[in-house]
């Protein structure tokens, strides 16, 4: 069934104006009050907050909490497959002149296979052809409702739309440069496209969360998916181009009811799980990157099975952990790793050794023409397990490794983890800071709590965001530095597990029974 989300229609001088309710998001510093203006875009009219400030930070988009949810809800975001204008390097925006290429159709088919065993209650999709066609391929023979939502269209780029990128640079000069380096404050045709997009994303969340469903598929576009991700976890327009959305990349958000019925816990369970390898060559945030940090979570250990303590690395890995370490090593074989830094815990060291052995055998395996040398070292600051286990001994039960599990620890414990992880982050940045080296890749092997904190430091967040991200055993997360390690990184993927094959984590793994 295909339907269109009904907006409120107001007649004004014989012109139809479309209004959608805005969604306030998780509590942060209050946003400024002020008038709203109506701004015309390519497919209607929307509310945009009028601001005299040149910078709109996270505070503006975090004025109030999300509405409560009755039961756990998982939202799966997918970007459309490659389009004809993607292939040409043409600026699409919210125009509707491009269609999927053969490669784009194949990517959508791969995503369909990725999601074929996953149950969805509803599909929301952008009405633009490239997105709608991707949704139709993924949805296939499912009988559940498919809803076209105009607010899921791509960012409105007005006069930029239809231009090749070099044409935009030649025609608009400084404005095009602003779009490239400071998109949050970029304006064109008297509009601020990214600010408008963030407001539109909040509007989308209203309808998605109020829909009577537990598992939701959303098929849309690069920029709007970025806005949905950022607004969900309380980040402002300055985070545009920070979370990569590749063609047909899959991202997952979990909304868990709060015990007191207030704003739900919101967790980014995974980011940009792609049909192709997440370490394949490509741009990050529209820019090429030669410096990269890869965060690797070790596999399960013997003590996990015996005592149930999650992710304890004190003991050697069990058979499944060994298999996962080998699969991680195979995934990274296509990448020349310069250094591997691990926690001194046994499971982390084992995983690091597995990666190193495969890297140094690259020539024998026919992947490289010459032997590789990988520097290995251990870092005490990557070990946070003793801190977490101390909390457990003090009577705080370590929660299961479910989305947002770090919310279960005392604030004092998280503060120690956060402070130690900052030291580890600075050390990792030094690993890739060599300006003389054209490319530099560092792999860090450690506990998921530590890696979540490292991503927080990368994004210039605070420890309050630790519960907003999730990592599984054997997963990898990739951080690129297109502007160098002295600037904020770009998150290429989070919690990628497809390389684990039969042991990968299903996209819509049920979280309902234990959290209802």
UniProtKB/TrEMBL annotation:
Enzyme class: hydrolase
GO cellular component term, pick one: chloroplast stroma
Database matches in Pfam families: His_Phos_1
GO molecular function, one term: 2-carboxy-D-arabinitol-1-phosphatase activity
Annotated binding of substrate, by residue: 79-86, 130, 165
Keywords, ordered alphabetically: Chloroplast, Hydrolase, Plastid, Transit peptide
Active site (UniProt): 80, 154
Subcellular location: Plastid, Chloroplast stroma
UniProt-listed SMART domains: PGAM
Similarity-based family: Belongs to the phosphoglycerate mutase family.
Name recorded for this polypeptide: 2-carboxy-D-arabinitol-1-phosphatase
Protein species of origin: Rubus argutus (Southern blackberry)
